[in-house]
Amino acid sequence: MSFTFRLMLRDLRSGDLLTLLLALIISVSTVTSIGLFIDRLQLSFEKESATLLAADRLVRSDDEISKDWVTKATDLNLQYAERTSFTTMMFANDALQLSQLSAVTDAYPLRGRFLVDDSLFGTGYNTIDIPQPGEVWVSSRLASLLNVDIGDQVEVGDTSLTIAKLLVRDPGSSTSAFAISPRAVMNMADVAATNVIIPGSRVRYSLLLAGDKAALDEYENWVTPQFNDSQRWRTPVQRGERIGDTIGRAESFLLLAGTLAVVMAGVAMALASARFVKRHLMQVAILKTLGATPKLLGKVFFQQLAVLFIVGSVLGLAIGWGIQEVIASILSGLMSTGLPEPSVIRLWLGAATGLISMLVFCLPLMSHLIKISPLSVLQPNARVELNSALIYVVGFMGIYGLMCIYTNGFLLPTIMTIAIAGIALFVAGIGWLAFKLGRSLTSGATSGWQIGLASLYRRLVPNLFQLLVFTLIIMLTLILIGIKSNLIADWQQQLPEDAPNHYLFNVQANQIESINSATDALNVPRSDWYPMVRGRVVSVNNESVQDLYPDERGEPELYERELNLTWSDTIGQGNTLVSGNFSAEGLSVEQEAAKEANLTLGDELSINIGGNLVTLPITSIRTVDWGSMQPNFYLILPRSVLQDYPANFVSSLFIDETSAQPFYKSMAQFPTVSILNVGDVLRQIQTIIGQLSKAIQLVLFCILSAGALVLLASVRSTLEERLEEGALLRVLGAKSALVRQALLVEFGALGFFAGLIAALGAEACLLGLQVFVFNSAPSFHPSLWLFGPAIGIGVITSIGLLASRKVLNVPPMHLLRDL
Amino acid sequence: MTSNTAIKVTNLTHTVTSNTGNLTILKGINMEIKESESVAIVGSSGSGKSTLLGLLAGLDVNTSGDILVYDQPFSGQSEEKRALIRGEHVGFVFQSFHLLPSLQAIENVMLPAELKGDKDARVKAEALLEKVGLSHRLTHYPRQLSGGEQQRVAIARAFASNPKILFADEPTGNLDEENGKLIIQLLFDLNRSQGTTLVMVTHDNELAKMCDRQLVMSAGQLTEKSL
Ligand SMILES: Nc1ncnc2c1ncn2[C@@H]1O[C@H](COP(=O)(O)OP(=O)(O)OP(=O)(O)O)[C@@H](O)[C@H]1O
Ligand SMILES: [Mg+2]
């Protein structure tokens, strides 16, 4: 066995190397577990959202899907299915009904399941099948409108199909959210025989794809350049959709949490390395007097670091994997689809953290260690002082680099680095003042209070550093808790339990009265009725939309499709005016939509309404509360413009499980009214939010445990001095109680200041994050100011007392001898 | 016995920079120490004894003048080279023992041999500890040993590399009379039996008198004490 390893094994017994190893393991395992867990969550969200699309990716087209595209999908080993959707009349006996038919191939749906039932208005069960040739599955609503049931025949074009099942949910239906006629599904094989698809009919073709992400990306790159005007590439989480927002914010949070974990891990490593070096300086000097050359020492320490890195990383990765599995299993009960396995490649993140931590926190300190003059053994004042400025700079850069790698960007790390640097300066300033003040209050150290406060100033630099570490960790904790409760409250507010899940369209003015009485009878909550006229924005400030977005890339939602327009004399419930004047003769635009299209007050939009071109300036911008019971409109026009167009009315409803069946039955009297059920989408979002809230709490818990460990490490790093002092005080005759009181005061004061400054910092950071990262409204958090100092005093005094209980209980002789 | 020159010092000056400006600790020192000689350096506190010892042992580089150890100059050598010379020729005993706290007694004694890659480190260390009367304390850690015992381990360690010169900086300074005597006994025994040159800083007159020569350090200058 080589000298290096023998030395290492011996060193292991002293605990110093073990502390370093432990810090490394904590770093690697925290980053690994959070990294892997975030990865799994992301995969899971993708999977969950994919069920809304029935696929991982989808090509939507108004023309038939080319055979080449299918061939390419098979070449890339992608699963594929096709769906053809069209609106057609269905006949049964004497009844007829315009309905929305989807014809699908065997593999459909690639993600998610059909929900079907055997009796009218049933709640449904999952099936992996699709309708057999000759069969059709119809929605209960369609069945009741046609007055048919299972086993009956319906005619579609030239063929007749048998109703085999009643359709409760079609997994891909949410993507065609505005196809609001009653629905039915049939087998692709029967389409030709119906003869309903003739040139000029309005048909939507979809090619559904699922498989490997790399292959999907390759397919996207290959297919999108061939797109014509009508063709679109769809991903499960589409920009601007609410579910995308929710997941996006959660990812930001987890990313932030992970980044903070990286910072804590860095601090832990730095503390452990500093302790290691401090305790080894004299040893290295002695080894030098015994003839150890710098070269040999360099080799020894380098090999030690290498072994440390390998052992620490392997253990850290393994433990990180384990922790992540535990979190996942705790969560698994909540996940409807189950968590996908994490990708093993993500482990590199943990290993990189280990390597970089070693490089920036250990290597510079170790190289310093080797430089110590052997003269130190004779002349304690010849001992080299650590060039700490450089070491802090390197360490800081290391943490910054790690954060950049971790977040794959510079914005968040830069914000955080600047914040941390600012806080460091602030802490140094305030701490110095406070400690100084504390000392001047205590002349003549007789009580524990006075001794405690005096020692704060006596060990100024280590105490300031410790104060900084405490402050940072408490602050990070407060920030995370703050964001967590913000996010969750925000989500819940956005999606209350009774958010409207059904919309009624195509309601004629004369039907309103009877629908009102029907819903009132069922006690169904309903919004006001809004008149609705359809129109399309064709030009902006006299420039045509087609010219502005020739290939339709980046085209804002406002121009992309035909919009529902309404008029209103007063700004509706749930709408808040942001700027302009709502009652002016102009357009009122929803804020997010305006932002996306880069519109401000005074811009002129030309809208094609039923063949007439209407040009109006934007006179107000408003936000809408998506949680309100109202149907929301991007554009509201003046009454004078719209009132002469034929309008139908829209309203939103909340229908729960018990009222669903009677509601659908009563709506059978209004065959022309379209019902849009967004309940599935809402439920999906609510499930995801539920998962996210739990996941976030778990991740938070993990990070806080890591934080507590760092605190412990930091208290330990000054333990020797405290032990020595405590022992001396007791040798000099101080009672244990006095020493304990002094320690309590010292830790308590440190904790109090740390908590207070942390609350201030956290408040500032939360405001910044709310405004810049999470795009939510800034708010004030009074509870931080209570929690901060409370956590500070509570946690730090208990950790401190726990760590230094030796000072109080062990006979002072033992302590002095041990030192 | 032909007496070779172990150490030869000419015009040695040493200046250090401190925060209060330059401080010249050693001011033109000349001396010569023969092989197998035992030399005591005495003088008041702060006169520069430890500084001189450190320079003689190559722990630091002097400002001007020459130090030759067995005709090899220390000045102008890299720390790498000086460390090799130290490992080859020099052993140390300190006032505060300076054992590695994380190593057992035997492991402390094995260190010099291990550093040279010697395979028999353990056997030799056992023999040395036996010689200093600690064969029953091999696996004890320094904190489990008394001061006198620790210093005996340090002496065993110092002789482990068969040094030609042994430097000792107040080896008995931290010990009571009885333990001090034991340590001195050991040092002189080994000095005699192995022909090791002994250079020792001490405040103890008894001890100084036992040496072949006494050199007196005073305000950075060295004079021979005539007997
Ligand atoms: N690197 C240094 N920087 C500043 N001053 C130094 C340095 N090295 C030594 N000195 C000073 O030089 C003087 C001589 O120190 P040295 O340790 O050699 O004295 P000494 O004779 O060994 O004293 P003692 O008997 O107390 O051990 C002391 O005043 C010491 O403070
Ligand atoms: Mg001295």
UniProtKB/TrEMBL annotation, chain A:
It is found in: Cell membrane. Residues 257-374, 699-812 form the ABC3 transporter permease C-terminal domain. The chain crosses the membrane at residues 253-272, 305-324, 344-369, 389-409, 415-435, 464-483, 743-772, 784-803. GO terms for cellular component: plasma membrane. Residues 20-222 form the MacB-like periplasmic core domain. It comes from the Bacteria. It is a multi-pass membrane protein. It holds the Pfam family MacB_PCD. Its main location: membrane. InterPro entries: ABC3_permease_C, MacB_PCD, Membrane_comp_ABC_pdt. Keywords: Cell membrane, Membrane, Transmembrane, Transmembrane helix. This is FtsX-like permease family protein.
UniProtKB/TrEMBL annotation, chain B:
Residues 7-227 form the ABC transporter domain. Keywords: ATP-binding, Nucleotide-binding, Transport. Belongs to the ABC transporter superfamily. Macrolide exporter (TC 3.A.1.122) family. The keyword ATP-binding applies. GO terms for cellular component: transmembrane transporter complex. This is ABC transporter ATP-binding protein. InterPro entries: AAA+_ATPase, ABC_transporter-like_ATP-bd, ABC_transporter-like_CS, MacB-like_ATP-bd, P-loop_NTPase.
